[in-house]
Amino acid sequence: MNRKSKKMLAGILIFCTVFLAAGCSIQKIDREKMLDIDYEIVEEIDIPEEMREEIERQKEKEFLFTYGDKGEMFIARGYGKQETGGYEIKVREFFESSNAIILKTDFWGPEYGVEYSKEPSCPYIVLKMKYSDKYVLIQ
Q1: Pairing relationship of beta strands 40-41 and 35-36 according to DSSP bridges
Q2: pTM of the model
Q3: For residue 134, what are the CA distances in angstroms to 21, 100, 125?
Q4: Where are the alpha helices (DSSP H) in 3-131?
């Protein structure tokens, strides 16, 4: 790449950065608990079809995404591909702040002395709650 092309590329990158930054806003996420959220853990058979398909696409890497349907919100949290089965996900805290929903989970490996599948697994959990338009964060 010649010198003139490098300068042009640098100019385009600077313009794009400034243009994109002008359209972005920063909002501070409040992490202070206001109230606990009522939720239920969703069995695989009860996960909406579109969400099941998305989980299948993303299951080999860590993920967090939400899905809204009929006044309910589903939150999926996955831990990616593991070498074996026997993993467990526990909800430690699930609460609402003034502008966010905070999900804290614990991820436990296979227990010593307990039989588990030696096949790779992709553990995840799906929670269902009343619909909210707040940000969802994991900790």
Answers
A1: unpaired
A2: 0.77
A3: 23, 5, 20
A4: 3-23, 49-58
